[in-house]
Each structure stands twice: as C-alpha cells, then as structure tokens.
C-alpha cells in the first residue's frame, strides 16, 4: 500500500509543481505591474523576470518587461525580450486569446521602440509582422494605422494611403486614422479639400478630443488660414489646460493671426504651467515687448536669464528692448 501511495505521489507531483509555479508567476507579474505603476522600475523588472522564470509562456510578462526596460533606458534588452514574447507558442494554454493579443502587443511595442529610435524600416517590419499575425478577435485598425504612419514617414505615400483606408474600413469612426489620413492628403496641395473633409469628420465624431483640433489647426496654418487656425488651437488648449506645448502653440497661432492680446494671454498661461522653463519667460517677454509693455517685458527677459544665464536669444531680445526704450 505504501508502495502504491509512493507511486501516486510521484505522478501527482509535477502537476502540483505546475500549479504552484503558475501561482508564483501570477503573483510576481501582479507585483511587477504595481511597482511599474509607482515608477520603481528596477524592482518591477525583477518581478517580471521572476514571473517569466516560473511561467516562461506568460506573454503579458514579456510585454510589460519590455515596457519597463524601455522606461529604464535598457532598450537593447527590451528588443530581445519583446522578440521572445512575440514568438511564444501558445499551444495548450487555457487563454489563447489573451496570449495571442499579448504577442501582437509585443510586436507593436517593438515597432514603437524602433520608430522612436528613427529605425523606420525595422519599425515597419515589426508592424507588418503584427498585421500578418493578427488573430480574428484583435481589432486591426490601430495596427493598420501604425503601418500607414510609418510608410508616410518613409515617403511611401501610396501604400500608406491603402493602410489608412484599411483602418477606416475596419472601424469607420477610428479618430487616429482620420487625423493621419488627413495629414497625408494635406501633403498634396491638390488634395487639400479632401484632407479638410477628414479633419471635419474627426471633429464631428470626437468634439472633445484635443488632438482633432490640434491637427486641424496645424493643417489650417499650412494653408495660411491663421484666424481659423488660432481658433482651433485655442479649442485644443482649452480641452487640455495643463498641456504646455499646446499653450505655446496656441499663443504662436494667435501671434500669427495678429491677435496679440490673445497671444499674451496664452504665453502667460504657458508660464503658469512651466514657471521654471526659461523659454516660457522669453516668449512672454517677446509678446509683451510687441504689445508695448516694456517694463514687464524686461522683467520676463531677466527671469529667463536667471533660469538660463547667457541665452543668446534672450540677450538679443533684451538688447533690442533697451534700444526701443531709449528711443521712446
């Protein structure tokens, strides 16, 4: 009897170990997510690595490990990890859908990394691989749009247009594809009217999306329609009131539209968002100078120089201001 019991235990043991390993892996993965959310990247990386050690087929752990490595500046390691994650075999897994989606996510993250590095042909290859390995349940529009964006950056506009249309065919209300397709069409002056139609459609579909107004404003600037562009930028900045770059872009658009008081208001807004940014104070000084508020302009320039001593642009502007003040 004891012999039979011993044999039974020997057979059951591997299954128990698999169950224990899965539990440990799940715990380590969850811990990694929490640590990454707190920007404790080194600890998060170790947790993900332990999760993979205990369950080498956990594709999501590879995706998050890659993300943490990128955030930590360890990009070459991230490439290797994401490649491994994209090639995992899901045979025998209970949740094949999650596994397949994670494999696609690994390829998309790999493509994004290459794109950020300017390695566009490698990014394109990763996105193509993702598109060709999409499971039926995975929404394709984001992948198709990324392919279009990358091809457009490579000046392969005809193929880019095909992918944008594929994205819009897959999901007609996909806002990113409306914007990127509009931007592509705007490169060709003969298709400017068509481009604007896509921006307008995006505006109707997503009236509270700041990016829609931002890129529509960008298009209007390119067409020399500065008054309309200023309104679009202002709407975008109002929707994202803490976005510094949008505040500056709005102020610049107002200046181009000769709406100098509005430009001053938005440059002041930019200063309030980033009070320790020297460029904010230089820009404000320049518009105050233009608006005839010389003492305030001088104070803004001096604050810019305190934050960034010796800045050539600010020194030049301050010299011009002093010359103006001496002749008035």
UniProtKB/TrEMBL annotation:
Entry keywords, A to Z: TPR repeat
Keyword Electron transport appears in the UniProt entry: no
Give the GO terms filed under biological process for this record.
protein O-linked glycosylation via mannose
What is one Pfam family matched by this protein? TPR_1
TPR repeats: from-to residues: 104-137, 141-174, 210-243, 278-311
Sorted alphabetically, the Gene Ontology cellular component annotations on this record are: endoplasmic reticulum membrane
By its UniProt entry, which InterPro entries does this protein fall under? Answer: TMTC_O-mannosyltransferase, TPR-like_helical_dom_sf, TPR_rpt
Which GO molecular function terms does the record list? mannosyltransferase activity
Q: Which PANTHER family match?
A: PROTEIN O-MANNOSYL-TRANSFERASE TMTC2
Q: Return the protein name.
A: Transmembrane and TPR repeat-containing protein CG4341-like
Highest classification ranks of the organism: Eukaryota, Metazoa, Ecdysozoa, Arthropoda, Hexapoda
Designated gene of the protein: LOC108736959
């Amino acid at each position: 009897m004891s012999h039979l019991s011993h044999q039974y235990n020997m057979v059951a043991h591997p299954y128990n170990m698999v169950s224990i390993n899965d539990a440990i892996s799940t715990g380590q993965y969850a811990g990694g997510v929490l640590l990454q959310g707190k920007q404790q990247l080194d600890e998060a990386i170790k947790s993900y690595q332990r999760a993979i050690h205990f369950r080498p087929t956990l594709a999501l752990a590879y995706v998050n490990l890659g993300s943490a490595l990128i955030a930590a500046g360890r990009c070459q390691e991230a490439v290797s990890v994401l490649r491994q994650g994209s090639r995992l075999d899901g045979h025998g897994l209970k949740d094949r859908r999650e596994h397949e989606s994670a494999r696609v996510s690994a390829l998309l993250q790999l493509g994004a990394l290459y794109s950020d590095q300017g390695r566009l042909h490698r990014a394109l290859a990763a996105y193509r691989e993702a598109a060709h390995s999409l499971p039926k349940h995975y929404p394709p529009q984001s992948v198709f749009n990324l392919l279009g964006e990358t091809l457009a950056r490579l000046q392969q506009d005809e193929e880019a247009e095909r992918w944008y249309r594929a994205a819009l065919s897959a999901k007609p209300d996909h806002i990113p594809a409306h914007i990127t397709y509009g931007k592509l069409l705007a490169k060709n002056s003969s298709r400017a009217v068509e481009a604007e139609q896509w921006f307008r459609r995006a505006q109707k579909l997503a009236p509270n999306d700041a990016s829609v107004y931002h890129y529509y404003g960008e298009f209007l600037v390119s067409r020399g329609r500065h008054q309309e562009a200023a309104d679009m930028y202002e709407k975008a900045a109002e929707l994202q009131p803490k976005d510094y770059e949008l505040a500056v872009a709005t102020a610049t658009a107002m200046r181009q539209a000769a709406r100098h008081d509005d430009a001053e208001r938005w440059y002041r807004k930019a200063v309030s968002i980033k009070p320790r940014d020297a460029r904010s104070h230089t820009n404000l000084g320049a518009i105050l100078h233009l608006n005839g508020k010389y003492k305030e302009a001088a104070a803004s320039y001096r604050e810019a120089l305190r934050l960034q001593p010796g800045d050539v642009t600010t020194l030049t502007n301050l010299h011009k201001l002093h010359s103006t003040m001496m002749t008035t």
